[in-house]
Amino acid sequence: MPEDRPRLLLAEDDPQLGPLMASVLDEVYEVTLVPDGGEALDAAQDGRFDALVIDRRLPTVDGVSIVEILRRSGNDTPTLILTALGSVHDKVRGLDAGANDYLVKPFDFDELFARLRAIRRAGSGEGPFVRIGAWEFYPESRAVYSPYDGRVILTERETSLLELLATHPHKTFSRDEILTAVFDATETPGSVDTYVHYLRRKLDADIVTTVRGRGYRLGIVS
Questions:
Q1: Cβ-based neighbours of 89, under 8 Å, separated by 6 or more
Q2: Which residues, 6+ apart, have CB-to-CB distance to 141 below 8 Å?
Q3: How far apart are CA 114 and CA 67, in angstroms?
Q4: Which residues lie across from 215 on neighbouring strands?
């Protein structure tokens, strides 16, 4: 194994899942497995890890509290929370605590690896990301990571259009609303159609959906 693997702290108290996860993650990371929240907090505070995977329900100190304490102390290590609680409220609670992402059990290991890559990219200069299905969109760096072709760079206008749709994934925007939010006052509704075409060509034909008679909305929703 290469010695320069990124270091990952895994806090998981399930006696079967924890060792299994550690074994799989060891393919890429140098993994430290701890089964207790207090131990996890002490280890994470040393600041020697490149990523943290923290189960939400841990003995001694729960996962959300661990993240809150770390963030208050200035520790910004990329952190993913594992949870069996799949409600929107529970996910928001973890993200508001300062976690970079969450993953609901049971999960697929390919998705776990992908999400770890994403939060580590976000911590290395790409900026925060918005998940669009299997895609990762980084508005600050105008980058989209495709599940097929790697990194795709957008223009400033393409980025603004995708950001508008991605941050309101269930809303249909009329052409006039998109013109006001994204384009110059001198542009016409045809500009909206042109840039939707550009996004579809660069990313995926389904990335933006046409809602007949109404406008456009995000086509791929997480």
A1: none
A2: 125, 126, 127
A3: 21
A4: 211
C-alpha torsion sign, points 101, 77, 41, 17: positive
In Å, how far are 114, 137, 148, 169 from 152, measured between CA atoms? 16, 9, 11, 20
Identify the CA nearest to 152 among candidates 171, 168, 135.
135
Task: Quote the pTM value.
Answer: 0.63
Q: How far apart are CA 221 and CA 207, in angstroms?
A: 9
Single-letter amino acid, residue 198: Y
The count of other CB atoms within 10 Å of the CB of residue 48 is 11
Nearest to 3 by CA among 32, 30, 40, 35: 30
pLDDT tens, residue by residue, 24-50: 999 999 999 999 999 999 999 987 899
pLDDT higher than threshold 60 for residue 105: yes
Name which residue leads in pLDDT, 148 or 108. 108
Express each pLDDT in 50-104 by its tens digit: 999 999 999 999 999 999 999 999 998 999 999 887 677 777 777 888 898 889 8
**How far apart are alpha carbons 40 and 34 in whole angstroms?**
6
Tokens of 159: 């980025």
Q: How far is CA 2 from CA 20, 28, 127, 165, 184, in A?
A: 21, 9, 28, 41, 52
